């Protein structure tokens, strides 16, 4: 997008984001992955009022704290489902097949759901109690931190690319919305490698 000797102007950055937000995202994500701040090399114009994605440490801590705090709600949700979770899981079988093609040859998920019941699930939750949920989340704090450390720079790159796009007209805002969706899909692809 630019060499390190010259910084992009706001207008140049906006034009690059409007022209190819995926290319901007990939450039920003690759720089961040290598430990280079795109602002420092002049790719992202420095703007102290630009919305930033939360720092990875703060984001991960909030995820863990929120999950631990939600333990009672989790237990209540399991005990009082709005519909039968086993039947709902079986209904979602086609969607799952598309995401898990390699496992679908044996229909493992569907067979497992058919071999259980909501009462059996609730009995396990009752026996374990809500503390098992919060302690399980807390025990995975390092895993959450690792994932968020990978996700945060990618999410920041999405934010930078989308915020760099024009937003003056309805068509501009629609383009931004669709670009944000496409870029979040790209985040998943980049994380999977």
Description:
The chain is an all-alpha fold and 193 residues long. It has helices at residues 10-19, 21-33, 56-69, 71-79, 85-91, 93-99, 101-104, 108-114, 118-128, 131-139, 141-163, 170-192. It has one domain (10-192). The chain has twelve helices and no strands. It is elongated and about 65 Å long.
Keywords:
193 residues; mainly alpha; 12 helices; 0% strand; elongated
Q: What string, H for helix and E for strand, traces the elements in order?
A: HHHHHHHHHHHH
Could you say how many structural domains there are in total? 1
- Tell me, rounded to a whole number, the average pLDDT: 89
Shape verdict? elongated
> β content, as a range?
under 5%
Total DSSP helices: 12
* Spans where pLDDT lies below 50 across 5 or more residues: none
Structural class: mainly alpha
Instruction: Identify the quaternary structure here.
Output: single chain
The termini sit apart by 23 Å
Query: Major sheet, described briefly?
Result: none
Helix content: over 70%
Number of strands: 0
How big is the Rg? 22 Å
Topology, element by element:
Layout: H1 10-19, H2 21-33, H3 56-69, H4 71-79, H5 85-91, H6 93-99, H7 101-104, H8 108-114, H9 118-128, H10 131-139, H11 141-163, H12 170-192
Helix pairs in contact: 1-2, 2-11, 3-10, 3-11, 5-8, 11-12
Short description:
71% of the residues lie in helices and 0% in strands.
């Amino acid at each position: 997008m630019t060499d390190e000797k010259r910084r992009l102007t706001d207008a140049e950055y906006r034009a690059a984001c409007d022209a190819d937000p995926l290319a901007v995202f990939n450039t920003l994500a690759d720089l961040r992955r290598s430990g280079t701040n795109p602002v420092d090399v002049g790719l992202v114009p420095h703007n102290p009022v630009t919305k930033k994605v939360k720092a990875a440490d703060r984001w991960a801590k909030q995820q863990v704290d929120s999950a631990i705090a939600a333990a009672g709600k989790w237990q209540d949700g399991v005990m009082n489902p709005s519909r039968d979770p086993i039947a709902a899981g079986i209904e979602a079988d086609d969607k799952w097949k598309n995401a898990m093609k390699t496992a679908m040859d044996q229909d493992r998920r569907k067979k497992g759901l058919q071999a259980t019941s909501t009462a059996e699930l609730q009995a396990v939750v009752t026996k374990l109690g809500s503390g098992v949920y919060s302690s399980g989340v807390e025990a995975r704090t390092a895993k959450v931190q690792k994932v968020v450390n990978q996700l945060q720079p990618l999410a920041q790159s999405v934010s930078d690319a989308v915020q760099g796009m024009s937003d003056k007209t309805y068509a501009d805002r629609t383009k931004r919305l669709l670009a944000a969706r496409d870029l979040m899909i790209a985040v998943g692809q980049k994380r999977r490698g």
